[in-house]
Backbone:
């Protein structure tokens, strides 16, 4: 079984029970005034990032450039893992409240292009909720009540921050909140001490608002 956490900024991927999963950029780049083309982890070995023009599969939090994503997945599957999709099950994450048309696009790529025989597709917040309910020691077991199988997940991603309540491991979609507070703003350049303090201040304000929902 292969797990693919397909984030807008980075991909976290690996086989089930793998100790050190891959953590690679989910983007491609073309070198300015050159024919050189870089895919995903190839970008990490390029020294001058100011010379790169990036193309990302995600735009405003949703995957809408499948040509770019297929190039990245192909390199991940074939070069990094020597994966045979026809012999492997896949677990794939998707954005919360993903439109049905984009879900159908994912099904087509997974089944028809790569040839996986089966896969599970869920938002990453679902896995976080499942983990917290079934592993309460993750978050202060003395204060965590697991009998209700309920929790609230704050997912601060590359494009947005989602706050999602779960009751009996079912996401209450009508209560999901989306905030324009994202990591891309802080990782575009190296984070300074001032930016770091601002990040924590903003996050604390967000958590205060969430606690009042």
Residues:
């Amino acid at each position: 079984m292969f797990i693919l956490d397909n984030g807008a900024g980075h991909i976290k991927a690996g086989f089930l029970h793998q100790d050190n999963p891959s953590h690679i950029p989910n983007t491609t780049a073309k070198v300015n005034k050159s024919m050189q083309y870089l895919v995903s982890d190839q970008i990490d070995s390029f020294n001058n990032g100011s010379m790169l023009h990036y193309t990302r599969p995600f735009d405003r939090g949703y995957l809408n450039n499948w040509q770019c994503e297929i190039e990245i997945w192909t390199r991940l599957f074939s070069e990094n893992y020597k994966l045979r999709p026809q012999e492997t099950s896949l677990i794939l994450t998707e954005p919360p409240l993903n439109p049905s048309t984009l879900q159908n696009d994912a099904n087509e790529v997974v089944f028809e292009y790569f040839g996986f025989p089966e896969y599970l597709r869920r938002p990453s917040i679902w896995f976080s909720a499942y983990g917290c309910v079934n592993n309460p020691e993750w978050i202060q077991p003395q204060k965590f009540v697991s009998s209700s199988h309920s929790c609230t997940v704050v997912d601060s991603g590359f494009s947005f921050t989602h706050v999602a309540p779960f009751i009996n491991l079912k996401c209450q979609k009508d209560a999901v909140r989306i905030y324009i507070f994202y990591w891309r703003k802080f990782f575009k350049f190296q984070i300074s001490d001032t930016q770091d303090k601002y990040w924590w201040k903003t996050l604390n304000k967000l958590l205060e608002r969430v606690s009042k929902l």
Summary: The longest strand covers residues 150-156.
